[in-house]
Amino acid sequence: MASPALDALRFLRSWAGHSRGAPLREVEVDDIQIEDDSPPAAPIGGAGEHAGRSLRAWRYRSAAPAAGPPRPGWVLLHGATRPGPHHPEIVRCATALAGAGGDVLIPEVTSWRELDLDPAPARRALALAARQQHRDPQVRPGGTVLAGFSFGCPQAIASGAELARRGVVRGVLGYGGYHSLDSAIRFGLTGGYERRGRTEKLHPDPYGRWVVAANFLHRVPGMDGAEDVSRALGRLAAFAGDVGFPAYARESDSYKAEVMASVSARNRELFRFFAPDAGVEPDPGLARELAPQLAAAARETYPELEISHALDQPSLREMSLPPVHLIHGRHDRLIPFTETIALKRHLAPRTKVAATITGLLAHSQAAARPTRPVEALRLAAAIRGLMKLHAS
Predict the structure, then answer these.
(1) 348-372 pLDDT, tens per residue?
(2) 217-265, pLDDT tens digit by residue?
(3) pTM for the whole structure
């Protein structure tokens, strides 16, 4: 890369010019396999659990001949979405990074594409992809930068801490992430979030609560008979990803009716609580009751979903973290921007961390409403700071 400022301009030019379905000009994309030759964590039948297994990934590089110096490396971790590595905004970011001179890998986390929120496969994918970048002679030595999107943000930060110690990671980008399961899930059910001592409210995107309930509703004490609701909400979230309809739009109502047919009569009211008709909010009393129970079930099932627990493991507790840059859309209706503010506050004692809240973005797309010109300058400054991770 030439300089952080110039690279930021090249990134923003490519990012702004990229449109869904447009050809990737000046960027080559390769579908590759990363071999997992790491020693097994525990022997299973005389062989390692992951021995001989490979990981699928997509590599984005400039189409220009690789006659110059090695390129800065990036690893992008998608969130819990059906498109996974092919999510339009992940592709857009990868294309912009490659257009700015970077070498980008996007590993596929198949369980996350199936909307299973287990963090372990993502941590493995990050480790394998970062190691692949470290070994690639076309990638600049000194470590890659991990970027975690949405649900992948805390996992990128935790993995970055481990991998920085091995010299294969030099920084982390977290986009649209969360700090606390309690506040993130409460927002998904009620739309309420705390800002400067006041409770404010947005209409939340119901996709988040569908995925959370699909994974954890039947794990709430007393809700073990609600497996059919969990399955139906999982199908509904999968429809949203496969078909591409917004979960809050009127067109989602026909899909709700279709999947509700699989729910027992006694549980249909509970299903309708999580997936009411478009424009109708869940019952606030039941939302306040269920939100902490869902958060507790998630924490009990996968403790490392929360960054505070993931970084409190004995192997990481005293370890310094690589620099972290956080970006969040002010108009995000899936995870409120206040989660990134809280995440910055949590990480600040352990590393250099920068956070940018921008009105140009929502969760996984540009904001629908117009914004002031100063927002473009703020985002440009954030991208320049991100590029500086490779200049340090």
Answers:
(1) 999 999 999 998 777 656 555 556 7
(2) 999 999 999 999 999 999 999 999 999 888 999 999 999 999 999 999 9
(3) 0.91
For 357, list phi and psi in degrees, rounded to 5. -105, 120
Helix (H) or strand (E) holding 358: strand 353-358
Question: How many of the other CB atoms lie within 10 Å of CB of 330?
Answer: 16
Q: Token pair for residue 315?
A: 């192997």
Give the total residue count for the chain. 392
In the chain the first and final C-alpha atoms are separated, in Å, by 12
If we measure between CA atoms, which residue out of 264, 271, 154, 152 comes closest to residue 210?
271
Confidence grade of residue 43 (pLDDT, cut at 50, 70, 90): very low
- What pairing do the DSSP bridges indicate for beta strands 144-149 and 73-77? parallel
DSSP state for residue 41 in the 8-state scheme? S
11-25, 185-199, 280-294: least confidently modelled range = 11-25
Cβ(380)–Cβ(15) under 8 Å?
no
Q: Which residues pair with 28 in a beta bridge?
A: 61
27-35 vs 103-107, strand pairing mode: unpaired
DSSP 8-state secondary structure symbol assigned to residue 326: E
DSSP string, 111-145: HHHTT---SHHHHHHHHHHHHHHHH-TTB-SS-EE
Q: State the sign of the Cα–Cα–Cα–Cα dihedral 63, 65, 68, 71.
A: positive
- CB under 8 Å to 317, separation ≥6 — which residues? 311
How far, CA to CA in Å, does 142 sit from each of 332, 335, 391? Answer: 34, 33, 10
How high does pLDDT run on average in the chain? 90
pLDDT at 370: 53
Strand-pair partners of 63:
none
Crossing angle of helices 181-190 and 338-347, rounded to 10°: 180
CA distance 159 to 58: 20
